[in-house]
Amino acid sequence: MNKKQLAHLEKRLLEERGRVVKELGHYGESFSSTLQESGGDLSSYSFHMADQGTDAMEREKQFLFASQEGRYLWHVNEALRRLYKSPKTFGKCHECNSAIDFDRLDALPHARLCIKCKAKEEDEKQRR
After folding, report:
1. Residue 53 sits in which domain range?
2. Residue at 99 is within a domain
3. pLDDT grade, residue 6 (50/70/90)?
């Protein structure tokens, strides 16, 4: 992989990292303020049991989305570590050591596996 391609992938990874960190910041803000506070209600209790259920469901959904973004951030950070630690081997499949197609890396810059090895991994997961 040439330097121009590596620079492009580094830029993509840094952009993704910035986007995810910003998104996690929004989740952090929403966790610190409840839906009732944003509506101007001074009481921390819902007036109706259905409202309590809705509030709990919304908090749980936000938590799930935030944890998914957190996992994605970990993958992006790992890809940046691999890129900075050994740029000559960045873009090589961790299973078969063949080059990962640049189009795949452009679409998914944190990819560790080539298409063949990823398909094999997915097939094995489905069999279990």
Report:
1. 3-90
2. no
3. very high
